[in-house]
Structure formats: structure tokens, C-alpha cells
Amino acid sequence: MSETQDKAIAAAPSDNGGTGAAGTDDAGRPAVKPVIAAKAAKRANASVIGMLIALLLCVLAFLPIVLMNPAPKSNGYRPNVDVAATAANAKDVAGFTPVAPDTGDTFSPNYARWVSGTGDGVPTWEVGYVTPKQAFIGIVQARKANPTWIFQQTGSAPVTGTRSAGGHDWELHDTAKGNRSMVLNYRGTTIILSGSAGLDEFSTLAAAVVKAMDAAPVASADTGTKPGDTVSQPATAKP
């Protein structure tokens, strides 16, 4: 190799971006690495520690609030509605024994009331239940039922067949929207069950209704109801 080539090779920049040996600059001095001053590092650490302490204090402050307000139970709030007591209060006004089916703890009542019928001329006993599957079925019982009133109570749904429950064939009204009704004329009154529940839950409640009606007297011919009479659930019950 010639002397000229040796000089050219010596003058060419190295692969480490202008520095000589690893960790040195062009003049052969060691490369300078940035160093944070001790005071600056201390201040940075203090800021991080302060943020962690503040976060911990916030958690400790809200923890008692969370513990004192536990999450609601899966079965939700259940109003304290005494269907049997409300039915007993409405008995004299209704002229028949309003049905109060024994559903145990499976069906949860959320209202019970006597409605005088000043709007449509048909006084009614009404009870609403939340089913075990968290659907709804409402009971309406009347002694002065008529075809127009039944048509309205069933949501104008057509008759699609019958459903056996409690030893009786109930008239089944069904819609394409998932709501349905079961109708039974029995012991002097007309009972209508309506709601969004499945037919299995309808049948369970219908059987309890028939059992309660069998234990009550047959409705009398004179209802004894005067316009404007209303009976609601006891004051201790929640609507």
C-alpha cells in the first residue's frame, strides 16, 4: 500500500460518528456523559414520593365511604307490600274477596291496590309481581268485566289458544312483542294475568291464583261498590 493511501485511510472518519476509540472524542478525550446534580435528583424523587403519598391519602379518605355503602344485592330493592292485608281492606268495598296468591319468596309484589273504575266503569283489584327471572306479571280481577274491558286489559292481543294452570284452561292472548295475557272467568270474577314473563312463570302464578280463589267465597251478585270508593295498600307498605 502506498504512502498516499495510508494517509487517506488515516484521515477518513471512523464508524462511531466522529469519535475515535469507543468512549472518546476526536481529540482522544473520554466522552462526557450527562449527570444529574444530587440536589436535582433529590427534588425529582421528592416529587414522585409526594404524588404517591397524596394518592394514598385520597384512597384512605374514600375507603370508609365505600365500606359504609355496600353494593346492592343482585335481587334489587323489594318494596314492603302486604298483598293479603291490602286485599282484606278492599274486601268490603269490592263486594268479593280480592285474590292474594301465596307465592312465598319467589314472586315479589311491588304494588297492591283497589281501583274504583271511575274511568272505564269497571272496578278492579290490581297486584303487580316481579318474577323469579326478573320479569313482570300484573294481576287484574273484576266482577263487572265485559268484552271491551278485557280487550283493553290484554293490550288488544288476539286469542292464540289456551294454557292449563291450576286445573283450569286459561284463555291465552299473545302479541308479537313478547307481552301476553291469560284470562280466566272463575267463581264470579274475571282474572287477567298480563306481562312480559315466560309462560312457565305465568303458569306458576296462575296456579297460585286458582288456589287462593278456591279458598275464598264465591263473589256475590251485589258488589256493594259506590263511585269514588278507593282502597290502597296499608300505610306501612311502599308502592
Key terms:
239 residues, alpha+beta, 7-stranded antiparallel beta sheet, 5 helices, 31% helix, elongated, disordered C terminus
Task: Explain what you see.
A hairpin with a 2-residue loop joins β4 and β5. This protein is of the alpha+beta class. The C terminus is likely disordered. It has a seven-stranded antiparallel beta sheet with strand order 1-2-3-7-6-5-4. It has five helices and seven strands.
Summarize this structure briefly:
It is built from five helices and seven strands. The chain is of the alpha+beta class and 239 residues long.
Secondary structure: number of strands: 7
Mean pLDDT level:
79
Helix content: 25-40%
> What is the subunit arrangement here?
single chain
| Biggest sheet features | 7 strands, antiparallel
Question: Uncertain segments of ≥5 residues (pLDDT<50)?
Answer: 7-12, 222-239
What is the general shape?
A: elongated
Category from helices, strands and their pairing: alpha+beta
Q: Span from first to last CA?
A: 107 Å
Which H/E pattern describes the elements? HHHEEEHEEEEH
- Our Rg estimate from Cα atoms comes to 40 Å
Strand order of the largest sheet: 1-2-3-7-6-5-4
**Count, helices:** 5
Strand content: 15-25%
